[in-house]
Each structure stands twice: as structure tokens, then as C-alpha cells.
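Following up on my earlier message about zinc ion. Here are the inputs again, as you asked, copied directly from the submission form:
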Amino acid sequence: MKNFPNAFRDLVESLAQFPGIGKRSAERIAFYILKMKPDEITHFVRRMEEVHNHIKPCVQCNNFSSEEICAICANPRREKDVVCVVEEPKDIIAIEKTSQYNGLYYVLLGAVSPLEGINGEDLPLQKLLRRCERKEIREVIISTDPDTDGELTAQYLVERLSQYNVKIYRIAIGIPLGTKIEYIDSVTLGKALQEKRSLL
Ligand SMILES: [Zn+2]
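Thanks, got it. Here's what our run produced:
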């Protein structure tokens, strides 16, 4: 790489900062960019700017939206009194793909993280709490990640929400289908046992 021009190395460095892109992939993308036509480059840059300038958090749920209220919150066919709390907008995409959920969402834009110095009070919960206060919400499903930060966040949410008359659920942390019990890590298996369901 040291024989390549600085501009190319800078581009690789920038690309390598994207999530999931290692140095090798960054180099491949940079070579691809080098071969793109000028109008393709202009088009691509414009798209990035558009995303940056026109997509804002939904005023109700913090999901990405080009309107003041996102498409999910604005959809009259969604159950308005059920709210699934997630850490990031990308989690909404994953849950929507299941087609198993028809309520609304609330995005925390992060999680409690002692390592990063993020406390529960730092999470933007006000809009959710206000709706609980106004008795607009019947059920909250906490769908934060099943890791340490996600669990701490879930605990904090339970603390804050328990003063309202809402049912609070945590998504079941399941055993992946098609796997064998002996291969499941003990944390997942422990959680699955805690959250066992009755069959009769
Ligand atoms: Zn929304």
C-alpha cells in the first residue's frame, strides 16, 4: 500500500471505518471506486448526502424517517398501544422481516453501557414515558440485545416503566432452530430455561 497515492490510502482508511468492512474489503471497494465513471460517483455522493440531510429520527419513536412521523407510526393498521423497544433502527428492520409483529416501536438509539459510560438516564426515554403517562400504551416488549448491555438496559426499562399501568415483556432469548443442546453456550441455555413456556 505504501506505493499507492495518499488519496487512495486515505480512501481505504475511511472505508475501513464502516462497520463490518475490514482492510482487505476496504481496498477492494477503493479499487472499484477508482474504476467508477464520474457521473456514477456524483450520483453516489448525492445519495449519501440525501440520506444524511433528509432522514431524521421520527418524532414519536426515533426510527429513521424522511417525514416528521415514520411510516410505521403513521400506519393506521398498526396496533398503537403495543410498543416494542429496540436499541437501534436496524433492529426494526430485523423484526419487521419476521412479519410476526404489528405494534409500534421505540428506538433507544443506544444501550446502557458501563464500559462506554452510558447510564440509563442518558437514553432518550422521555417520549415513551410520556405516552405511558397518558395511558396510550398497554404493552411494552423489551427487545434489546441479549448481551450484558442489552440486559442492563432491559433492567433499567423495567425500573422506569413499572410505575405505569403497562404490561412489560422481554423477548424470549431462544435456542436457534436446527441446533443441538450440547452445542449451545451456557448463557443462552440458561436464559432459555428461565424463560420456559408451558405446553399444557
Ligand atoms: Zn415512528
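One observation from looking it over: Residues 58, 60-61, 63, 69-70, 72-73 surround zinc ion (CB under 6 Å). Hope that helps, and feel free to reply on this thread.
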